[in-house]
Amino acid sequence: MADKFLQKPRGTKDILPTEQPAWSFFQSTAEKVLCGLGFGKIDTPLFEDKRIFERGVGNTTDIIEKEIYLIESAVDDEDSKLALRPEGTAGAARAYIENGMGSWPQPVRLFYFGQMYRRERPQKGRFREHRQIGAEIIGDWSAQSDYLAIMSAVEILKKLGFSDLNIAINSIGCQECRPNYLKKLKQYYSDKLDKVCDDCRRRYDSNPLRLLDCKNEQCQNIKAKAPQILDKLCPECRQHFQDTLQYLDDFGIKFDLDNTLVRGLDYYTRTVFEISAGNDKARQTTLCGGGRYDNLVSILGGPTTPAVGWGMGADRVVELLKDNNVKMLPPRGVEVVILEIGDTAKKVCRQIFDNFEKEDINVFYIPSKDSLRSQLKMASKLNADFAVIVGQQEALNGSAIVRDLKSSTQEDLSVASAVEMIKEKYTKAS
């Protein structure tokens, strides 16, 4: 008996041709918004030196402790220190340093789209290989960049059709004011450790701020009564946060203050935020999350450089687009097929092909010795709008038959008139 066929790894998925319109709609919408706000696209490697994530994301985070995919090497060399990227910000910060972007006009605004990898329990909208779009603003201390980061994510989601968005926001302070808060937080939890989950007991010593990030049901009541970090902010952090909220308020972006919002990565400072859709006030299906990370560039070996950014889970957003039946324009397929009947027609067909290509019309032309009937069947399978047919007689006369494949009507025109007629139809349609 033959072995069972091999399947894709758990926590991954195939994106089939029928799903591609939703993905194209998501990516093109996001890129159009970000480019329009002055962001430039960057592509970084799918794998990096694992120390970038250990230093930046944090050794005591779930990502490093439980979820990171290390790349095995047969020998103990530099390749044995690589890891698949679990998120995009650390790689973008590394690229900022390595490519001398500190000498560019500041701030530098970057965005990226691609796969991220985390070894976590797969569920709806969450995969071990998932796709993410992210945006980073590097080189600006001001609250204007915090506002721009949040606004850009909101604008993308609105353009995608999400009208009801929940924006939760908090400040987790800086290296100056956070230690005082952590001391107070640990005092609060010290006599409650027997009532919290195992993760919280572990975080109590290793990363106490993440006690507020716990989603375990048994910890919710305790977390809700914990001391508020906003009460312990230093004057600079308090002013920065107030300025950020004022920008959001001035531009009509509604938000909810959430004093338990901390995010799960160590590099965050000051502003943190999450965006969810619809009635998801509990943020069980967060679409986008991010915040300020003023220490990451220096942690990775660069100069002290302020930054703020976010990541948006593409898989989850696209899933909601499909669930909500959001109207999306499908990507343009084959629009015109050129059918060649006999070698005499080859030169004329090539001229017609060149004309359509220059006009950004999707044209399909491969010289064929098949019958006209067979070629028309092929054109129909490609779901083309028009077939331009050139046989020996048409080639000698400088003409072509234009067949409307949707209405099954056709007419005999000069080559110039045939090209012009089809061009005009697509110009009007656009």
Question: How large is the count of helical segments?
Answer: 15
CATH topology of the largest domain: BirA Bifunctional Protein, domain 2
Question: Can you identify the CATH superfamily of the largest domain?
Answer: Bira Bifunctional Protein, Domain 2
**Largest sheet composition:** 8 strands, mixed
Give the strand tally: 15
CATH class of the largest domain: Alpha Beta
What low-confidence regions span 5 or more consecutive residues with pLDDT below 50? none
Percent of residues in β-strands = 15-25%
- Computed structural class: alpha/beta
Strand order within the widest beta sheet: 1-4-5-10-9-8-6-7
Which word captures the global form?
A: elongated
What's the number of domains? 2
Overall mean pLDDT stands at 88
List keywords for this structure.
430 residues; alpha/beta; BirA Bifunctional Protein, domain 2; Rossmann fold; 2 domains; eight-stranded mixed β-sheet; five-stranded mixed β-sheet; elongated
How would you explain this protein's 3D organization?
With 430 residues, this protein is an alpha/beta fold. The chain has two domains: 17-177 and 233-323, Bira Bifunctional Protein, Domain 2 (BirA Bifunctional Protein, domain 2); 336-429, 3-Layer(aba) Sandwich (Rossmann fold). The protein contains 15 helices and 15 strands. It has helices at 20-36, 50-56, 62-67, 89-98, 143-159, 178-189, 198-206, 220-224, 235-250, 296-299, 314-323, 346-358, 372-381, 392-397, 415-429; strands at 40-41, 47-49, 82-84, 108-117, 129-138, 165-171, 256-257, 269-277, 288-292, 307-313, 336-340, 363-364, 386-390, 399-404, 409-414. The chain has an eight-stranded mixed beta sheet with strand order 1-4-5-10-9-8-6-7, sandwiched between helices. It has a five-stranded mixed beta sheet with strand order 12-11-13-14-15, sandwiched between helices. A two-stranded antiparallel sheet has the order 2-3. Helix 1 (20-36) packs antiparallel against helix 5, helix 1 crosses helix 11 (314-323) and helix 5 (143-159) runs parallel beside helix 9. The longest helix has 17 residues, at 20-36. The N and C termini lie far apart (56 Å). The mean pLDDT is 88.
